[in-house]
Amino acid sequence: MSREPNAKLIAIMEEAQVSNKGLAKRMQETADHRGLDLRTTHISVQRWRNGSGIRPEAASVMADVLGTKLGRRITSADLGFFDLPQAAAPQPVGYPSTVPDVLSTLGSLADERSETPADDPLIVADGDLSSAVLSWMIARPDGIQADRPGRQRVGMRDVRAIRDAAGMFMQLDFKYGGGHGHKALRHYFRHEVLPLLEVTYSEKVGTALFGAAAEVSQLLAWTAYDTGNHRLAHRYLSSTLRLTQVIDDRMFGARILGNLSHQANYLGHHAQAIQLARAAVEGAKGRATPRAMSNYWAMEARALSNAGEKVGAARAMNEAARHFEQADSADDPAWLGYFDEAELTGEFCHCFRDLRMRREAVEQAQRAVDSTDPAYARTLGFCRMVLAQSQLINGELEAAVATASLAVDGGDSLQSSRFQRYVTDFQAEVSPHAAHPAVVAFNEKVSEALARLDDDE
User: Which of 48, 59, 110, 273 has a 20 to 30 A CA-CA distance from 430?
Assistant: First the structure.
């Protein structure tokens, strides 16, 4: 019996301007990243176009691939595949209750790849979030199980090696973004770091070891975040927060709450972003250096600014600046070394842009651009895009487009899913001037730059 051609699939493939070979290649790459064995070829795609049935896993991958290409959500039904079993609902993001639980969770996360379509949704229930924050705020530290029987004993040399590795990967992340090094880092974390947490060490070494492991876990969260895999990033952050509870590291735990606030703010969950930032400030009082407190207050300022709360944002910025003035009065941990004046200025320029304070936004963003080391391509790209948006708010269209063009010219920045969103947001903001020659040239530049990232081009 002859089948009817799948008109829906054919139409969407034509809209996405993707060939049978191109779709098969994208599907196979996505399946490989997810550990699925699809073995998709251009012949498979042609069969589906001709009306053949499809496995649910393949339909899901195809929908994600075409949805990413078109910039909107695509379902299996949209592709003409009906009556397929529905995918299981995402599991709630939990807060591990015991040390074995958190180590098991981190081991599982380290087996997951970060690459995923950029529209991966993340919705965290307010109750789940409040429960995790409250658990961290009021829980007693688990403490280190020192000098357990065992053949392998960990020393400070092992801890220094982990911290050196974390520092190296952090530098790569700052310079290139886009999840650069995530695969190598998760392999290192899974096979070299996590096993050491369950062997023999003194209390001093164990405390330092858990702290070093938390630093690596946090970096895995950031690299997943930068690829657009927000669910994986959030699970890493939640588990890392629990890891800090083991050794009562309130300063680093507050840093993780600040990261969670940053992510919630980026995703538009303003109330949660404010709650998380305030939990960081309150949870670290009396336990963190002035530089760290400046960072936590800056996260609160970012969240309040994005929510349009001008008075609260101004107060938070003042507190961040006040603490930063005292930043050299205490010894900071190495992981906080990145938070210098340029970084704080970068946080403030985001605040003024979101509050639409035109003059202050341009001034702070220009300062951020001028003070950022050009070696850090992604950070400089962010600052330039905020400057461009600030100039646009100030009515300086041509200057804004010129600044955004410089940011795109940075090249490496475009590997970052976050940076791509800064660019697409700017394109939406200049769309009323779409016919202006400078805007036309900029949009062409962006299309060409993104095409260079696409293996099909």
Answer: 273
Read off the pTM.
Answer: 0.77
| Token reading at 225 | 């975040």
User: Tokens 């538009």 sit at which residue?
Assistant: 268
* Dihedral pair phi/psi, residue 145, rounded to 5°: -90, 90
Alpha carbons within 13 angstroms on the beta-carbon side of residue 98 total 3
**SS3 state at 165:** helix
* Residue ranges of domains in the chain: 7-79, 95-114+123-248, 358-453
**156's tokens:** 């400070």
Which residues have CB under 8 Å from 20's CB, separation 6+? 42, 45, 46, 49
Q: What is the pLDDT of residues 119-157, one digit of tens each?
A: 446 777 777 888 889 989 998 999 998 888 877 889 999
- SS3 category, 180: coil
Nearest Cα neighbor of 171 from 380, 338, 344 is 338
149: its two tokens: 């029987």
